[in-house]
Amino acid sequence: MSENALLAHVRDAAQKLGWREYHPWWSGHSTQGFPDLTLVRRGRLIFAELKRMDGTLSWDQTGWLADLEETCAEVYVWRPDAWSSGEIARVLAP
After folding, report:
1. What is the distance, to the nearest Å, from the Cα of residue 45 to the centroid of all Cα atoms in its chain?
2. What's the pLDDT tens digit per position in 66-85?
3. How far is CA 61 from CA 67, 76, 94, in A?
4. Rounded to 5 degrees, what angle do the CA atoms 15, 53, 64 make?
5. Which tens digit of pLDDT belongs to each residue from 9-31?
6. Domains of the chain: residue spans and CATH
7. Interatomic CA distance for residues 45 and 82, integer angstroms
8. Contact 1, 80 (CB under 8 A)
9. How far apart are CA 79 and CA 94, in angstroms?
10. Model pTM greater than 0.85?
11. CB neighbour list of residue 27: distance below 8 Å, 6 or more residues apart
12. Contact by Cβ (8 Å): 43, 71
């Protein structure tokens, strides 16, 4: 599964489950390394970086994720196996 396909699945599921979600339309004008998705619902804040199975995190992505993990937010790196195993659905469930 491509990163774009995974993004489409996660965004669709999040919207159906009542999450507000933000994904930059074009990352070329965004801060390098900022996570792909920001999700908010009922006091929960999630930052998720989406990767192909063989995708690696850049130095900037690793830095952002490490800094965000020091906050009260939930931080994930999701790959297609997280979708197929149901991990993402469990995280997004009410």
Report:
1. 11
2. 999 999 999 999 999 999 99
3. 10, 12, 28
4. 65
5. 999 999 999 999 999 876 666 78
6. 3-92 (3.40.1350.10)
7. 19
8. yes
9. 21
10. yes
11. none
12. no
